[in-house]
# Entry
Amino acid sequence: MKVNHGDAPEGAVFAGVDTHADAHWLCVLDAVGRPLLSERFPATPDGYDALAAAVRRAGEPVAVGVEGTATYGAGLARRLSELGLPVWEVLQPEKRRRPRGSRKSDPVDAERAARKALSGEGLSVPKSRDGWVESVRALLAARDRLVSSATAAANAAIAIARSAPEEVAGPLRGMRADRAMPAALGMGDPGDPVAASALRAVRALAESWRASREAAARLLAEIEGLVRGGCPALLAMYGCGPVSAARLAVAAGVFDSFYF
# Structure
């Protein structure tokens, strides 16, 4: 979106940050786009404070554009906001194929972010990383991984059962995962050693399936409670269950712009 910064104060500066897991690169421009500073800072609490201090030493910060405010830049964006700096998320362009042998340039990317902060183009309000939405974000990510793990375990168990001796394959043939896994756990030990080994493998995967499903269900109950307490209108929407409501909450991030 286009952000109108209004009349820039005397000594106004505009900053951009290219973020990474271990370090962030800062570029600061003056009000007419001249580079004032280009420097690397560690992605640590002390590094965040040092970066903020560097921006303030350069002038009066009007906008600080940060790439990846929901990923590598999350901690930095949160700290800069706590320190009172005007933080904006810089929308990253689609990845372009780089010429063979060329490398990504952190200083160049930081300057690009700073120029977006200066122009007001390609900026958005950073999604909240605090409060109940952030709790939902973490729990939903874990729940999704558990559901995927359960599905993978069930698929592997069924594949083993299909190629196992009839003593194992027969009782499970044609069953869906939600029936086959409990059935496998309840089967008696076959006399044939090959069939017994196959059943042990299926049971181990069925136990993993059950544990993942139970853990996912516990997280879902917690997620539903958070959404119900934070924004019950989401659950009141027609056809919107707890998972869909949670995904909407995480996608929206900032509820000042959420209308019902």
Observations:
- The beta strands are 12-19, 23-30, 35-42, 60-67, 87-90, 123-124.
- The CA atoms of residues 181 and 206 lie 5 Å apart.
- The longest helix spans residues 193-230.
